[in-house]
Amino acid sequence: MRRGSIVRITIYGVIAGTLASLAAVLIPWLPTSASEEMDRIEFTFWFTTVICIGVFAVVAAAIVYMVLNFRVQPEDDTDGPPIHGHTGLEIVWTAIPAVLVTAISIVSAIVLAKNDDAGPNPIRIAVTAQQFAWKFEYPGEPKVTSGQLVLPVGEAVKLTLRSLDVIHAFWVPEFGQKSDAVPGIETTLVITPTRKGEFSIVCTELCGIGHATMRGPVRVVERAEYDKFLASAGQGGGGTGGGEEDGESVFATAGCGSCHTFGPAGTDAEVGPSLDGVDPGGQSLEDFLREAIVDPNADVAEGYRPGVMPETYESSLSDDQLDALVQYLAENQQGG
Ligand code: CUA
Fold it and tell me: What is the pTM of this model?
């Protein structure tokens, strides 16, 4: 090959590589990392991307060069010269990709193994998914349950995920990793937060009509603030540790607001009927509300379909919680 050709191919390759690099760097493909696991995923992403840009530059340069130099001339109907392949080239273009793909798989395997390893003594939080809310049970005596996920910065956390009904999936984009919550089995997810802030839990498995509303907050805070949260949640403020149940926090923890509008709780979802101005028909308001929670398909409000509201609240809520919730809803009726 002439020297002029090599220079031109190199120029095409540099241009193609530059364009691909700009697309990789200028577009924010990934959310800003907030965990060690996400940092490793980012490393794998960029490791693979750099290899891809290199391969793309070589292939694009070869294509552009051939299109410009070996294009068939108008009027040229002759056959091309008989070429029988090139063993040397074939070995090169098989061996190099094989090495690159092996390198990517080794890096990925190491990252996967590290991202599954929570270390010897992680904070263990049990996550329960249910149409359409997340519930978190924190370690300690007594156990603290809350609809809020609060994590101390810099400490490894191991989530154990369970589902009470269908398959859900737990994902916080800034933490990188995802895990399904599957009925009947326990799955796990490791998070080691690296910066403080507020993020969003997103359910990423289509789990029913309220799927899009199945989101929850997660706060990453200093250890001292985490301890304070546990102490206050344990005293009834969102917890189940301290005797008296509080209907407002049961409403929040059970995820009622994901589907129902209820003015006093500040929710405005429209998956299910509004809980403002409930008309109990001939029944007492308390009986009507209780039945609607434990046996939602017995009497479905006009304009709504049966089978949407989960039938699991009778078992997932304690009697005290159910009483508190019914009382909270009944006492806060307005209008109607
Ligand atoms: Cu739960 Cu989608």
Answer: 0.73
